[in-house]
UniProtKB/TrEMBL annotation:
Name of the molecule in the record: Guanine deaminase
Entry keyword set: Hydrolase, Metal-binding, Zinc
Family the entry assigns: Belongs to the metallo-dependent hydrolases superfamily. ATZ/TRZ family.
Catalytic activity from the UniProt record: guanine + H2O + H(+) = xanthine + NH4(+)
Names of the cofactor(s): Zn(2+)
């Protein structure tokens, strides 16, 4: 009798802890009807041969070819889905000007449902093809189009956490792009939450509504209060931008006399299910508040190179017990790939540690103990993301979802430099993380279902 829906045989890499990536060589991954990893069996386990004998001729059995490896699917904790339409452009000016010159105009076009669906189909497919199995999305202020994004995630099999963006403050938003008023913003958000919860019942992988005040400047006190209450009432996720740039951080200090973290907390917006993007300017007390409330930081290393006016001290925040994941921040970050963001996270951290001004003596240039390793950056994109959203994802372990990318290292046009048949698996892992391109991502699975192949 066959107990499992699928059995996969192959070598996998998965974080054991922030610093340690475990290699599971030639293991069997036994997947149940719910798409969860029910058992992982090592080659020296007694059951190994029994399972092989039972399954290996069945279509439920999948053996990786030589040169192929499993990685956990990536968890992108911060994507502006509508901004996919301008990804790779418009990065020449600071945040405030960028929002008003490029981003609010493009987002306002999502009142057109056909245009919205077009872009959203494309961004969800693109992220899947880049190995992103779970994404935490900002949509736009438009309720219908935001629901269309949730629908598209449901249909394509991606685990989408989706927010209708709220921005009702006439002082900081343009007339052509804002919620009609605070009451409408709250009513639309509640309808959106209920509709996505209904939709979720029809999916295997889950889609989730997210309460989404864009950031403090674009919201009135009334709406921020109301959104905190709605999140508590419906037990939803919350996402926003927090202490991102000098301008934004300064604006909040001027309006409330405190940092974003404490201001957001006053409105009930820091909870176990909150994810705050950027957080470059958190001070020690802010970080403690994040750790106490279970609020996660989403590190957006590519975007931060353009808008942050600083490099976030990730290593220091991690050591304070703050949950941290990784985000592309499309289109503040130009790349839809979390591989690219893992690479940038490592590089930015090294620049923070070493400093950048060659006119200063070496010992005065940087911030000591700031660098993170490739393993730590990979952790942020996988296990750290899973912890941030409190879901059993991001690790290839029993009782975690079968969310994986199958990496093919021998693609003709994107061949990895693997010449030694006995190459150490940790080295192979590093080559994969630094060198993989979408061409190398052969299959992507979410919750035990194949959602992409090439
Ligand atoms: N702050 C408010 N809105 C945005 C946005 O769309 N992108 C980034 N990077 N920061 C923001
Ligand atoms: Fe953002």
């Amino acid at each position: 009798m066959k107990t499992y829906t699928h059995i996969f045989q192959g070598t996998a890499f998965s974080s054991k802890s922030p610093k340690v990536v475990q290699t599971l060589k030639d293991h069997l991954f036994c997947i149940n009807a719910g798409g969860m990893i029910e058992k992982i069996i090592a080659p020296d386990d007694y059951d190994y041969q029994v399972l092989l004998d039972t399954y290996q001729d069945d279509e439920s059995f999948h053996r990786l070819a030589d040169g192929q490896y499993f990685l956990p699917g990536f968890i992108d904790l911060h994507v502006h889905a509508p901004q996919w339409a301008q990804a790779g452009t418009a990065l020449d000016i600071p945040l405030y000007d960028w929002l008003n010159t490029y981003t609010f105009p493009i987002e306002s076009k999502f009142s057109d449902l056909d245009f919205a669906k077009n872009v959203y189909q494309d961004v969800v497919s693109t992220l899947l093809a880049n190995g992103t199995t779970t994404a935490l999305y900002f949509a736009t202020v438009h309720k219908e189009a935001s629901l269309a994004l949730a629908d598209i995630c449901a249909e394509k099999g991606q685990r989408g956490l989706v927010g209708k963006v709220v921005m009702d403050n006439p002082d900081q938003t343009p007339d052509y792009y804002r919620d009609a008023d605070s009451e409408t913003a709250l009513a639309d958000t509640e309808e959106f939450i209920l509709a996505v919860k209904e939709l979720a019942k029809k999916t295997k992988q889950g889609v989730y509504p997210v309460v989404t005040p864009r950031f403090i400047p674009s919201c009135t006190d009334e709406v921020l209060n109301g959104l905190g209450a709605l999140a508590a009432k419906h037990d939803t996720y919350i996402q926003s931008h927090c202490s991102e740039s000098d301008w934004e951080h300064g604006y909040v200090r001027e309006r409330f006399g405190k940092n974003d973290a404490f201001a957001l907390h006053d409105f009930g917006l820091l909870r176990k299910k909150s994810v705050m993007a950027h957080c470059n300017f958190l001070d020690d007390r802010d970080a403690e508040l994040f750790a106490e409330t279970g609020t996660a930081v989403c590190h957006c290393p590519i975007s931060n190179a353009y808008f942050a006016n600083s490099v976030i001290p990730i290593a220091q925040l991690h050591s304070k017990g703050v949950e941290i994941g990784l985000g592309s921040d499309i289109s503040g970050g130009f790349s839809p790939s979390l591989f690219d963001n893992v690479r940038q996270a490592v590089m930015s951290s090294r620049m923070l540690e070493d400093g950048v001004n060659p006119a200063l003596p070496a010992e005065e240039r940087g911030v000591p103990h700031s660098r993170i390793t490739l393993n730590e950056a990979f952790y942020l994109a996988t296990a750290g993301g899973g912890e941030s959203v409190s879901l059993p994802i991001g690790r290839l372990e029993e009782n975690y979802a079968w969310d994986v990318q199958v990496i093919e290292t021998r693609v003709a046009a994107a061949k990895l430099p693997l010449y030694d048949a006995n190459e150490n698996l940790q080295d192979i892992f590093q080559k994969i993380i630094y060198l993989v391109r979408p061409e190398n991502i052969r299959e992507v699975w979410v919750q035990g279902e194949k959602v992409h192949s090439r």
